[in-house]
Automatic annotation (TrEMBL), chain A:
Similarity comment: Belongs to the acyl-CoA dehydrogenase family.
Location of the Acyl-CoA dehydrogenase/oxidase N-terminal domain: 2-114
Coiled-coil intervals: none
Alphabetical list of SUPFAM superfamilies matching this protein: Acyl-CoA dehydrogenase C-terminal domain-like, Acyl-CoA dehydrogenase NM domain-like
Species whose genome carries this gene: Teichococcus wenyumeiae
GO cellular component annotations of the record: plasma membrane
Keywords, alphabetical: FAD, Flavoprotein, Oxidoreductase
Cofactor names: FAD
GO molecular function, one term: oxidoreductase activity, acting on the CH-CH group of donors
Name by which UniProt lists this protein: Acyl-CoA dehydrogenase
UniProt cross-references to PANTHER family, sorted A to Z: ACYL-COA DEHYDROGENASE, ACYL-COA DEHYDROGENASE FADE29
Pfam families: Acyl-CoA_dh_1, Acyl-CoA_dh_M, Acyl-CoA_dh_N
InterPro entries: Acyl-CoA_Oxase/DH_mid-dom (IPR006091), Acyl-CoA_Oxase/DH_mid-dom_sf (IPR046373), AcylCo_DH-like_C (IPR036250), AcylCo_DH/oxidase_C (IPR009075), AcylCoA_DH/ox_N (IPR013786), AcylCoA_DH/ox_N_sf (IPR037069), AcylCoA_DH/oxidase_NM_dom_sf (IPR009100), Mycobact_Acyl-CoA_DH (IPR052161)
Length: 385, 356
């Protein structure tokens, strides 16, 4: 099937099969919860499109990287949610590469049909960008591990069933050694999840306390002490994710709609339309970088610097688009950010999500390897040391 | 291994232009007087003519090489690595594009271009807003002025596109018949103002064909100018990295300071972003189809200000040396400052894009 026919088929599916209320939520930059994500995942699964990034024998689609890129783009163009990434794009590739047959049998089907929800237990209060300094301990006790420690910034922990977790199983001279990857059900006794109040008035991150949490040794992925290399394998998938420019295209379209709907002839609209042109040019550049990166991967060519460059340029561009949304709406909505009559202060003002997204979006330059870390990496290649 | 820029159009043309420009720049650096630099640029043009550069886009039937935009792009990409102070884009691309749309009269002139006997620079309507051609019987006359157009040594004619009764006209004017005033641009390229006072001109073509060729010429100009910007950024980045790797202050190389490393990375991101845009547009040029107009315009809108931001930062990273005429990187920075003003500045482009 040629690209255009493929695109048309996907578009038709997205527009007819994705529930209108979910598309409306995406279109206004709303916060997606487990309910929306899993509904959409179930629909994709039933069509056979649940896991485009997996090998066919595990339920993949057999699409080329190029087709997967088109899939991501069409989802974004049609205001459909992107696929929830933690199980599907982060953990599953590690399980497929390093997990036991039993682990694959147990965990992959629930990820594929969207019935089991995963979150990532990596960061800790004293291990942020410097992840290798993590301290959560897992002590072997017979056939179990007993886990003690704290995880932080854990997205979706409040609605997840499972957490894939990096823990320290032994003290080694090198900090990257002695780390293991455990799959922990969140309903295990000894786990408590506390929401973190974030600046955007959304609930998405949590602190997860693990106090004498007992998990069987069979919950460990791969070898004991090799967790860091699995984690790195997973992070590479996360970085590859930046070659996916679909979220940028989606946000650009929404920003454009927002500005076009402002009163014609208003000076603010004119100024914002001008700013948007610059951002559109940057999006065009990033799209080309992403396309080339995919070509390079498909042809086994080295990727070089591109993921760091795209992380830097892409996160800045997304923030600029979100700031444009702030400027379009802030004069009105910044003065009515929270509703006193709502228990959670949730505002129902149309467009309020632009303010929330501006605030939430500050995280883009912090997570996924902060932009400063990316600059350190790039500087090493530029200066040769 | 420290950073080296990868050309978008590697090959013989790129290599020979890059080598030529590097040698030319070494000499430029030694010349303190504007007149000396001007004579140097004139000699460079003689050599460029011997190398056949003005004939690259002239069709083979007229004695040229029969190349296309990608060939001139390779040439300017190489030349821009050392801010070669020659008007390659107007002379090697704009003029042949306009002449090819000008029927038999244009073809005869193209032959002269290939032989090197005709040395022609273009005057586009935006260079000369008040310029007007009028018909007097069979003869045509020009009145008005053009500012800041390219200049060649031994200039024979100006190829003028301007408003006229009956539609936009393309005319050839003898250089000796116009009043010329010579300048050196901010980036060291030769330029001139021309004024016309009932000056005799030969009409080559008029109307829609001229309009269409002007669109083509402007697009090619914007594309090639941005290609020069990317090449100049790449070379300037190499030199900035080299400078920071060798310059020692406080007992250590500047490259060991994180603040400077991060600023250099920001330059690199500007460069890679501009390069991605040009790679995308180059694909369209190589396919031989017209550029997607909006994309080309967005690229120029972006790269003009990006080139300036890059230039300012490259100067800062060279410290006091960044303010001297000594460094090649500084000549590259000055070349980059010109990009915004060539072939449609960002304000004009934004206005047009928003009106579309």
């Amino acid at each position: 099937m040629d690209d255009e026919a493929f695109r048309a088929e996907l578009r038709d599916f997205c527009l007819t099969q994705c529930p209108p209320e979910i598309r409306a939520l995406v279109a206004r930059n709303g916060k997606l919860g487990r309910r929306e994500w899993s509904t959409w995942q179930r629909i994709l699964f039933e069509r056979g499109w649940g896991a485009p990034n997996w090998p066919v024998e595990y339920g993949g689609t057999g699409w080329t990287l190029h087709q997967r890129h088109i899939f991501d783009e069409v989802l974004a163009e049609c205001d459909c949610p992107p696929q929830y990434h933690h199980g599907l794009r982060h953990l599953a590739p590690v399980l497929i590469a390093y997990g036991s047959e039993e682990q694959k049998r147990q965990h992959l089907p629930g990820i594929l049909d969207g019935s089991v929800w995963w979150c990532q237990g990596y960061s800790e209060p004293d291990a942020g960008s410097d992840l290798a300094s993590l301290k959560t301990r897992a002590v072997r006790d017979g056939n179990d591990y007993v886990v003690d420690g704290t995880k932080i910034w854990t997205s979706h922990a409040q609605e997840a069933d499972m957490m894939y977790t990096l823990v320290r199983t032994s003290q080694e001279p090198k900090r990257q050694q002695g780390i293991s990857l455990l799959l922990i059900p969140l309903n295990t006794p000894g786990i408590s999840v506390t929401p973190i109040r974030t600046i955007d008035n959304w609930h998405h991150v949590n602190q997860v306390f693990l106090d004498g949490v007992r998990v069987p040794a069979s919950a460990r992925v791969g070898e004991e002490g090799q967790g860091w290399s699995y984690g790195k394998y997973l992070l590479q998938h996360e970085r590859l994710g930046v070659a996916n420019t679909a979220p940028i295209i989606g946000l650009l379209n929404r920003a454009r709609r927002l500005v076009e709907e402002m009163p014609a002839g208003s000076p603010r609209r004119t100024a914002l339309r001008q700013r948007l042109l610059r951002l559109e040019a940057e999006a065009l550049a990033l799209r080309d970088m992403g396309r080339r990166a995919l070509d390079d991967i498909m042809n086994d060519r080295p990727l070089g610097n591109v993921s760091s460059v795209m992380k830097l340029a892409g996160s800045n561009l997304m923030q600029s688009l979100e700031e444009l949304g702030l400027d379009a709406t802030g004069r009105r909505l910044a003065f009515r950010f929270r509703d006193i009559d709502d228990a959670n202060g949730k505002s129902t003002e149309p467009g309020i999500e632009w303010l929330q997204n501006f605030l939430y979006g500050r995280a883009r330059t912090i997570y996924g390897g902060s932009n400063e870390v990316q600059k350190n990496l790039l500087a090493r290649t530029l200066f040769g040391s | 291994m420290a950073f080296t820029a990868t050309p978008l159009l590697p090959g013989d043309l790129f290599d020979s232009a890059a080598k030529f420009a590097a040698a030319a720049d070494a000499r430029t650096a030694e010349l303190a007087k504007v007149r000396e630099r001007d004579e140097h640029a004139a000699r460079l043009w003689e050599q460029a003519t011997e190398l056949g550069w003005p004939a690259i886009m002239v069709p083979e039937e007229q004695g040229g090489i029969g190349g296309g935009i990608p060939d001139v792009a390779a040439l300017v990409e190489g030349g821009a690595r050392a801010a070669l102070p020659l008007p390659l884009v107007p002379a090697c691309a704009i003029v042949p594009i306009l002449l090819q749309a000008a029927g038999e009269a244009g073809q005869a002139t193209l032959g002269g271009l290939a032989e090197g006997t005709a040395r022609i620079i273009p005057v586009l309507p935006e260079d000369a807003p008040g310029l007007r051609a009028t018909r007097q019987g069979a003869a045509w006359r020009l009145d008005g002025a053009a500012e800041g157009v390219a200049r060649l040594p031994g200039l024979t004619q100006l190829l003028v596109a301007c408003a006229a009764e009956g539609g936009t006209a393309l005319l050839l004017v003898e250089a000796s018949a116009a009043t010329l005033r010579e300048h050196e641009r901010l980036d060291g390229q030769p330029s001139l103002d021309a004024s016309f006072d009932g000056t005799a001109a030969t009409l080559l073509a008029q109307g829609e064909a001229v309009e269409a060729s002007l669109v083509q010429a402007r697009d090619a100009g914007a594309f090639l100018c941005c290609m020069e910007a990317v090449a100049a950024m790449g070379a300037a980045l190499e030199q900035t990295v080299g400078y920071l790797n060798t310059r020692v202050q406080f007992g250590q190389t500047l490259a060991s300071f994180q603040a400077l490393r991060h600023r250099t990375v920001e330059l690199y991101v500007i460069y890679e972003t501009a390069r991605a845009l040009m790679r995308h547009l180059l694909e369209q040029a190589e396919a031989g189809t017209p550029w997607a107009a909006r994309e080309l315009s967005l690229a120029k809108l972006h790269i003009g200000p990006a080139a300036r931001a890059f230039a300012k930062e490259a100067i800062q990273l060279h410290g006091g040396m960044g303010l001297t005429e000594e460094l090649a990187a500084v000549r590259l920075a000055k070349r980059l400052l010109l990009v915004e003003f060539e072939y449609g500045d960002s304000i004009t482009r934004a206005e047009a894009l928003l009106a579309a």
